[in-house]
C-alpha cells in the first residue's frame, strides 16, 4: 500500500485491502474515507469488509462513493464536511487516489490559495490540472467562462514583459497583445543598489504601470492563478479565462523572505535592511550614514538569485562611505555567502578581491542565513562546507543587509510549464518552451543557465520577439540568445567593475577595452550605470528600441 500524504490532516491512497487497516492505524490515522464505489473492479474488497477491519483497528470509516471522472461540486462539499467531522488525521482512498485528491482540492478551494493546493497535491503525486478552473473558482464549476482571446498574451509587466511586448508590437503592429499584471507601479530595480548607496532617490526608480504599457497593447490588471496550456488558456484570479494563440511568460521571481525565520518581523528596523525592496533601500542608506562603529553583515543566499552581484554591491558602497569618512577602522565588515566563491566568473574576481582587502572585509563562504533575532541583533547561519558536517553559528550584528532566498513564483512552480526545480522549462537558445511550441519565456522566471539581470532581459526580449514573429509567419526560430548578462559591480562611488558574460562564463563585453575594460574598476562604467543606463531602460528598452541588444541569428547547419 502507499501513503501519499497531502498534508498533516489528510493522506490519500490507491485501493487498500482489509489487512492494511492495522498498518494505517499504527501510522497514526484515526479515520478512513472510501471514495470508490463497490463493484468497480473484480479484485476490489467491499466497503463492508474494509469497515469491519477498520473497526477492529479502532478506526472510524465513511463511505462516499464517487464515479470516476464525475466529482460534483456537492461531492466536494460533503468531503469537506467529513474532514471537519471525523477525527484526524484522515486516510482517504479510491482506485488510484485521484478522486480523493480531487475531492480534497475542491473542498479546500474556498479558503486556500490555488497554488498551495496544487503544490500539496503535486507533492503527493497527483496532477489537478483537470480541475484547476474549479479550484480557482472556489471549488465550484464555473458557469460562465467569459473568455477573452488575444493573439499573444504576456504574463508579467516587469522589465521583460514590457520590453518584449514593445519589441513584438514594433515587428507586428497589427497583433492583438495583452499584458497580464496586477501591479500599479513598475520599478527600475537595478537602481535600488544606488538608492541604498545614497546616489539615487527611490522615487526616480518608480513609474506607473499604465504609463509604460505600449500603445495598442491591452493591460489586464489581474493576477494569474493557473495555466491550461493544453487549452491555450490562462486562468486569472476570480476564474476569468484568457485564451491565446501564443503565450510569453515573464512574471519575474519570488523573493522568499519567509524562508528565513524571524526576518519578516524585523525588516526595516533593528538595523536589518535590504536593497531588494523599494521601501527598504532608503533605510540601507540611513543605516550606513548612521553607523560609526560595530559589525555590519552582508548576506547572500544560495543561487539562483536576481543580480548575483547585488549583495556585495551593498557591501562595497557601504565600505566606501565608511572609508571616505574615516570610520572604516571601527567597523567590522563580514560577507556571509552561502556559495563558495566571491563571483561566478573568475575574470572579475581579482579586481573585487582588491576592494575586499581595501574595506578589510571578511569573506565567510558556505554561510547561509536561516534565522534572525532583530531585538537581540543576532543572525544564525547554517555552515555547510564541503566534506564537513553542517553546523550552525550565531553572529551578533549592528547592521545587516539581507539578500533574501529566491524561487519561482508559486503559480509557476505548480504549473505544467515548470521543470523539476519550478522554473519555466525553455530551450536556452531560442527561449521556446521545451514541451509547448506556442509558449516562450524570458527574464528571471525561466531556467536557462544565465545570470538573472535586467541586462539579460534586455537581450532576451528581441530574441523572443523575433522568434514569436517568425512562428506567426510559419517559420522556424530565427534568433538565438547567447546567455548574455551584465552586472555593474559598484566597488566604490565613482567606479564600477562592469561584468558582462554569457553561457559558461564567456566574456561578452559591449565596448572595446580602451573605452571600458570590464575586468578593472573604471569611471566610464560608473557613468554608464549612473547616467546612461536609466534612460536606456525607460526610453529604449521598454519602448522596443533595441540599442545594444541586436540578437544573434540562427545559422543554417
TrEMBL record:
Gene3D superfamilies, per the entry: FAD/NAD(P)-binding domain, Protein tyrosine phosphatase superfamily
Record flagged with keyword Zinc: no
Protein name: TIGR01244 family sulfur transferase
Xref: Pfam families: BLH_phosphatase (PF04273), Pyr_redox_2 (PF07992)
Domain Rhodanese: start-end pairs: 75-130
Assigned keywords, A-Z: Transferase
One Gene Ontology term of the molecular function aspect: transferase activity
Organism field: Tropicibacter oceani
PROSITE patterns: RHODANESE_3 (PS50206)
Amino acid at each position: 500500500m502507499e501513503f501519499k500524504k497531502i498534508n498533516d490532516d489528510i493522506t490519500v491512497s490507491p485501493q487498500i485491502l482489509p489487512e492494511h487497516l492495522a498498518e494505517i492505524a499504527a501510522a497514526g490515522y484515526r479515520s478512513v474515507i472510501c471514495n470508490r464505489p463497490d463493484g468497480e473492479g473484480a479484485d476490489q474488497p467491499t466497503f463492508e469488509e474494509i469497515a469491519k477491519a477498520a473497526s477492529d483497528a479502532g478506526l472510524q470509516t465513511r463511505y462516499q462513493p464517487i464515479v470516476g471522472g464525475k466529482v460534483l461540486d456537492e461531492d466536494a462539499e460533503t468531503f469537506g464536511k467529513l474532514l471537519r467531522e471525523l477525527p484526524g488525521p484522515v486516510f482517504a482512498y479510491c482506485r488510484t487516489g485521484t478522486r480523493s485528491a480531487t475531492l480534497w482540492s475542491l473542498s479546500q478551494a474556498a479558503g486556500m490559495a490555488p497554488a498551495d493546493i496544487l503544490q500539496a497535491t503535486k507533492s503527493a503525486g497527483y496532477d489537478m490540472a483537470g480541475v484547476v478552473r474549479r479550484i480557482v473558482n472556489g471549488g465550484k464549476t464555473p458557469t460562465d467562462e467569459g473568455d477573452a482571446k488575444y493573439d499573444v498574451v504576456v504574463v508579467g509587466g516587469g522589465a521583460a514583459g514590457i520590453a518584449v511586448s514593445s519589441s513584438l508590437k514594433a515587428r507586428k503592429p497589427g497583433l492583438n497583445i495583452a499584458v497580464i499584471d496586477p501591479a500599479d507601479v513598475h520599478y527600475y530595480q537595478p537602481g535600488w543598489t544606488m538608492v541604498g548607496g545614497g546616489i539615487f532617490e527611490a522615487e526616480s526608480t518608480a513609474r506607473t504601470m499604465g504609463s509604460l504599457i505600449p500603445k495598442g497593447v491591452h493591460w489586464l490588471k489581474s493576477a494569474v492563478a493557473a495555466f491550461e496550456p493544453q487549452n491555450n488558456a490562462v486562468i486569472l484570479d476570480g476564474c476569468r479565462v484568457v485564451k491565446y494563440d501564443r503565450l510569453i511568460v515573464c512574471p519575474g521571481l519570488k523573493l522568499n523572505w519567509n524562508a528565513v525565520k524571524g526576518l519578516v518581523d524585523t525588516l526595516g528596523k533593528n538595523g536589518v535592511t535590504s536593497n531588494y525592496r523599494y521601501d527598504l533601500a532608503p533605510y540601507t542608506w540611513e543605516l550606513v550614514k548612521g553607523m560609526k562603529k560595530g559589525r555590519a553583515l552582508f548576506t547572500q543566499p544560495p543561487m539562483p538569485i536576481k543580480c548575483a552581484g547585488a549583495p556585495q554591491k551593498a557591501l562595497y558602497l557601504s565600505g566606501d562611505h565608511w572609508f571616505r569618512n574615516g570610520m572604516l577602522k571601527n567597523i567590522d565588515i563580514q560577507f556571509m555567502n552561502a556559495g563558495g566563491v566571491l563571483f561566478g566568473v573568475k575574470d572579475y574576481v581579482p579586481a573585487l578581491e582588491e576592494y575586499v582587502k581595501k574595506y578589510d572585509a571578511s569573506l565567510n563562504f558556505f554561510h547561509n542565513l536561516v534565522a534572525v533575532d532583530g531585538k537581540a541583533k543576532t543572525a544564525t547561519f547554517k555552515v555547510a562546507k564541503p566534506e564537513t558536517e553542517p553546523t550552525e553559528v550565531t553572529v551578533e550584528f549592528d547592521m545587516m543587509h539581507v539578500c533574501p532566498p529566491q524561487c519561482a513564483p508559486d503559480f509557476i512552480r505548480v504549473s505544467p510549464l515548470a521543470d523539476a526545480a519550478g522554473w519555466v522549462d525553455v530551450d536556452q537558445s531560442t527561449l521556446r518552451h521545451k514541451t509547448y511550441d506556442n509558449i516562450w519565456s524570458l527574464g528571471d522566471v525561466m531556467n536557462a543557465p544565465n545570470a538573472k539581470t535586467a541586462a539579460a532581459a534586455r537581450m532576451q526580449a528581441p530574441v523572443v520577439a523575433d522568434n514569436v514573429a517568425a512562428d506567426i509567419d510559419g517559420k522556424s526560430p530565427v534568433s538565438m540568445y547567447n546567455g548574455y548578462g551584465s552586472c555593474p559591480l559598484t566597488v566604490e562611488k565613482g567606479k564600477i567593475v562592469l561584468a558582462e558574460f554569457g553561457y559558461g562564463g564567456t566574456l561578452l563585453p559591449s565596448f572595446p577595452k580602451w573605452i571600458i575594460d570590464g575586468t578593472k574598476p573604471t569611471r566610464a562604467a560608473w557613468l554608464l550605470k549612473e547616467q546612461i543606463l536609466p534612460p536606456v531602460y525607460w526610453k529604449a528598452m521598454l519602448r522596443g528600441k533595441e540599442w545594444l541588444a541586436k540578437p544573434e541569428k540562427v545559422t543554417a547547419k
